Amino acid sequence: MVFAALRRVWRVSRGIPGVRGVLAAVDRVWWARTIRRAELVDLDHVQLQVGRRLRANAAIRAYVRGRHRDGLSLNPLFFDGRVGSQLPDAGRVPALYAYLINDQAKIHTSETWDAPAYAAAHPDSLRAPGGPVGAAWRSSLDGGRLDIGVGSSTVAVTRAELLRAERVPPVPHDARGPVTRPRLLIWRFGPGDDDGTALRTALTVSSVSDSALWLVVDEKTPAALRLACAQVPLWQGNAVVVDSAPDVTRADSTVPTGTLILVRDPDSEITAEDALTLLGSASRAPAAPLWLRMDGTIASAGVVVRDGEGRHLLAGHPAQDVSGLGDHVDSAVLDSPVRAFRVGSTEGARTLLGVTVRSAAVPTAMSLPSGDTRMDALSVGRGLQIDDARWPLMKRTAVETVTLPDGSIVPRLRWSVKTAAPAGPTGEAWGDTHFARGLAAALERLGQYAAVDARPAAQRSSDVLDDVSVVLRGPHPLRPSRSRVNLLWIISHPDEIHAEELSAFDRCFAASTAWAAAATTRFSTPVAPLLQCTDPHRFTPQGLTRSRDLVFVGTARGIARPSVVEPLRVGAPVRVYGPDWRGYIPAGAIAGTHVPNDRLPAVYEAAGAVLNDHWPAMQRNGFVSNRLYDVVASGGRAISDDVAGISEIFGPAVRTYRDIPELHELTLSDLDALFPSDDELAAIARRIRDEDSFDARARHLLDAARELL
Question: Yes or no: is domain 167-360+377-392 CATH 2.60.40.10?
């Protein structure tokens, strides 16, 4: 607790002018001292990256003074990008330092060496200087062997053999040797691949598909990643590291006719599952995935041609707009940063709309086939059709109507739900992302067309085709779009709202009855209450047996959150799921760094009780956490800090505390005596699912949009 408090003070002090520079220098000295005492710097490995021999102190100084941001690795078993993706502090401090001060038992440090497996086999290594990395490396210096590889496919090598592999330069592409396997992966690496995900995906696809593997590195590839690639041929004999590799579209002396090839360009995000799907589809016809920009909008759903001019279908649209096109689109060419084909194939290309690649690559000049695309065969749907006057841009069709189960007839509108969450994998950890998807799915059940936009796509070019935009106001304000109606739904950060922001929207809602009334008076703009909600199609009881454990799901937010730390301090059984709790609570209390969204209902229902708290501004202004709706709808029980409205909404299914002694008392109580019977909880859960569902909120928003239209 004392250490956590000191760390908070230290962080705040960094923002004080005149103090920032001094504290930064002290930070670097402390980082260097910690790394030096770990005894794991390998100077031969460092020399291969920087091109000259350094002393250990000089290597450490270079690392802490900024070279860690360039991907400098101090040990062949430690890949900074891999560790940085697991520890939130690694974005602020060097990854190696973050590793050394954290619980190391389950942290993966390399794509080619299994640190958690080593820690499990050698538990004493967790108490050694440098943890498992330091212990294993020092053992190799004394003649021990290192198990290099992935999963069960490993080989025991000496330190000398590992460094010898790293010293082997990439093979010139014209000297790579013949491909003797029926499938070939050409995996090109760039500066954005420094977290190791791309290498991990390549190794997975190669292993599952029994493919030959070309790992293509050049001067733009981070040095540590090049050395990690150089280790792969030690255990994977079908892999070769090459300095360049042109697309192989025709048979030559090294790649025979009939070879299935998958090419992945640098900095392109694709899962192993999607890559394998592409490879399998290419046995029938050349295939590319749906290509998304980094903001999540479509770069290309396939290339269409008219009068000899090629264009990317649905460029600038939300990814949901491909759902009306079926499972694939016939494409004139394979113009994608990931593509699969059979050498010598003459079949036409296809874009598979069920698999995606996310890339910042810019479409290049295309070599188009003769003949135009049959545009009459493309039925886009979702209220859209190709605009012949501005081909191949889209235009709105006449607005349809749909009859709902209650017999009411409503217009079938195009909606966008816009969030403050980032796009891509990072946004998957945001509750706003899943809230937006829940709302969009409910709108679709009302016969609407709904898409979700991450913050970078909030002003996408195609939003002029939308009828209604709903901005979910989170930690960042978003401007109204060019849709016909703009709605604002404030679900968090009410303390940051100002009059100008409200006045820009056609109608405003807030997830707090009290705040909505106060804001209406304060800002002279009507704000209607529209409380948080849950998805009853996901959060519903499954009849699971309750444990005695208290459960918390969420991040530490960079602080020792009392709702978690205090129950642990007094001996309550707490299981925590979150990515950044190391250093705040005992390692034994961390049940996992993440809970898949589809498993949350079971986690909530099976908990003795779920712990919950609110941001101070949310608590002051009566914004009840969305988590409580999900917990209670699942048949679960919750203990939360007190917020106005909780007891009226959830009754005895949620017990609240106003101070730390009350929190201690609740978490040490007999939980079955603290909460009502299972029958009463089931009745409360049914009421929440009926009255406080995304479907109910979507219908409210639809009615508001109809009034405004």
Answer: no
Determine contact, residues 361/268, Cβ cutoff 8 Å.
yes
**Amino acid identity for residue 386 in this structure:** I
Q: Residue 178: which of 257, 231, 247, 233 has the closest Cα?
A: 257
Torsion, Cα 42 44 48 53, to 10 degrees, reads 110
Token pair for 410? 């409503």
Alpha-carbon distances of 129 from 72, 98, 138, 587, 641, rounded to whole Å = 21, 14, 10, 18, 41
Pairing state between β 239-242 and 212-216: parallel
| The residue type at 181 | R
Q: How far apart are CA 434 and CA 600, in angstroms?
A: 12
- Per residue, the 3-state secondary structure of 204-232, as one string, reads HHHHHHCCEEEEECCCCCCHHHHHHHHHH
The answer to whether residue 373 scores a pLDDT higher than 80 is no
Radius of gyration of the chain (CA): 28
**Residue closest to 341 by CA, chosen among 265, 282, 264:** 282
| Beta-strand pair 303-306/485-490 | unpaired
Q: What is the DSSP letter of 29?
A: H
CB 317, CB 369: distance < 8 Å: no
Partner residues linked to 318 by β-bridges: 297
**Which of 394 and 611 is assigned the larger pLDDT?**
611
Residue type for 45, please? H
Q: Which residues contact 311 (CB under 8 A, 6 or more apart)?
A: 303, 304, 305, 391, 392
Whether residue 392 is preceded by a cis peptide bond, meaning omega within 30 degrees of 0, is: yes
Give the count of beta carbons closer than 10 Å to the beta carbon of residue 597: 13
Q: What is the rounded distance in angstroms from the CA atom of residue 539 to the CA atom of residue 441? A: 14
With CA atoms as reference, report the closest residue to 240 among 181, 291, 281, 305: 181
Predicted confidence band at 151 (pLDDT cuts at 50, 70, 90)?
confident
Query: Distance between CA 319 and CA 458 in Å, rounded?
Result: 13
Residues 533-572 pLDDT 10s? 999 999 999 999 999 999 999 888 777 889 999 999 999 9
What span, in angstroms and rounded, lies between the C-alpha atoms of 76 and 223? 12
CA proximity to 340, closest of 491, 525, 183: 183
Is the pTM value of this prediction over 0.85?
A: yes
**CATH class of the domain comprising 400-529:** alpha beta
Q: How many residues does the chain have?
A: 709
Helix (H, G, I), strand (E, B) or coil at 136: helix
- C-alpha–C-alpha distance, residues 225 and 78, integer Å: 11
| Fold match between domain 167-360+377-392 and domain 550-691 | no
CA 67 to CA 506: how far, in whole Å? 50
CATH architecture, domain 550-691: 3-Layer(aba) Sandwich (3.40)
Strand pairing class (298-300; 349-359): unpaired
Q: Where are the domains of the chain?
A: 24-154, 167-360+377-392, 400-529, 550-691
Long-range contacts of 499-504 (CB under 8 A, 24+ apart): 499/523, 499/524, 499/525, 501/477, 502/527, 504/479, 504/480
Q: What are the CA-CA distances from residue 314 to residues 341, 400, 442, 462, 479 (Å)?
A: 23, 21, 24, 9, 23
- Region at 617 (left for phi over 0; alpha for psi -120 to 50; beta for the rest): alpha
pLDDT score of 364 more than 50: yes
